Amino acid sequence: MEVIAIQKSALEGMKNELKALLELTENATRKYRTVFKEEKWLDNQEVCLMMNITKRTLQTYKEKGLLPYSKLNRKNYYKLADVRALLEAGHPYNTNGNGSTDE
């Protein structure tokens, strides 16, 4: 085991910086916390697996406004309720055997 000795003032400084970083993180995520707690959100891969569609078909659904989404840090998220509603309504397009769509 290696032991490293540092001054108490340096340790206190690191503690204060870590506390400040934690506070910044809490403040940055606070506004999203209620959104994600109220509703289950899915990413692209989860939606494709749930609906048994390709990423391109998912893109078409987004472009046509058939599946609402939110973007957070360049990543798309979909409400589980919206995905279920689209599934219950039936796929807007028929998918052929290779996963592409027949429009």
From TrEMBL:
InterPro entries for this protein: DNA-bd_dom_put_sf, HTH_17
Pfam family, one: HTH_17
Top-level taxon of the source organism: Bacteria
Coiled coil segments of this chain: 4-31
Any GO MF annotation of the entry: DNA binding
Domain named Helix-turn-helix: residues: 41-89
Keyword Coiled coil belongs to the record: yes
Record keywords: Coiled coil, DNA-binding
Protein name listed in UniProt: DNA-binding protein
